[in-house]
Write a structure and sequence with these properties.
Layout lengths: L2 E3 L6 H13 L6 H10 L5 H4 L9 E3 L25 H22 L12 H14 L2 H13 L14 H5 L2 E6 L2 E8 L2 E2 L6 E4 H13 L4 E2 L8 E2 L1 H13 L19 H20 L2
Length: about 280
Amino acid sequence: MTKCINLLDDDGENQAVRMFLLLYGQPGLTVARMREHMESAGWPQVPEWATKPEAQGHLTKAGAQSWLRHLFALETPYVVIPPLSEADDNAVSLLSMAMTTKLRKMRAKGRAGWDSESCTQQRLSNLLRAAVEKGDTVDVANYCAFLLARDESILPRRTAEAGGWMEQLGFEVRQHDDMLRIVVDDCGNERESTLTERVLWDMLMAANAEFVSAPRAPAETDRHHEAVLRLEATQAALQAVIDAVLPANLRTPGAMDRMDAPWPEAARALWGARQDCAAAGAAV
């Protein structure tokens, strides 16, 4: 049988925190430390809940697992939905309230745009996977809800095989001896053979290896529709290098200073792109 504990007493402000300690507490965990933990977890309204005159809810202690039903929709933050008859119904109810609370907090910070045309299915899928990696169950549920509302499925993780990143940039890749021959598609036609750029195979493959891991590190910015992969900047940098016709004898950053323009700028762009890719991969 579920036991309900009324928090409407003279010490109601701290009673909610003490209940958390009772149900979830560990040795050495203080009321102050628990309050800090609750606030960092997104429940700042809980300590004040019991002091409100309109508060009608109770924290409940259910069974041996002892868990709280304490998540509220933001527009009615002082009402606790009573326990339902089925455990799975309770779980769905708690999740929906957590989702609503999180979304309203994000909107208050100016975050929106999942229903914008600029927010792609792939981007939402990437953000969902990032939330899975972080272990954020509420964000995972919200991204799933966005995709469901758009009648879209979760796309597979985008990966790039050897040369795949160059194909994404609009290049046709051909292997030529020990080099990589890149033919630029200019208005549907190949450039003259004398203008065909050649770049060292090992340098491009090194950059590509880092590029492959970069899509796993999507960065969520203030707005969903502005959330972009860092490798977009990398693509632009690599594009600048290829457009500048990186010479085949460039093997080390030190060679940049001994070259005539525009080679130094192009070379630094390539090395900067590789560093960006590495940083994005390290953020996974």
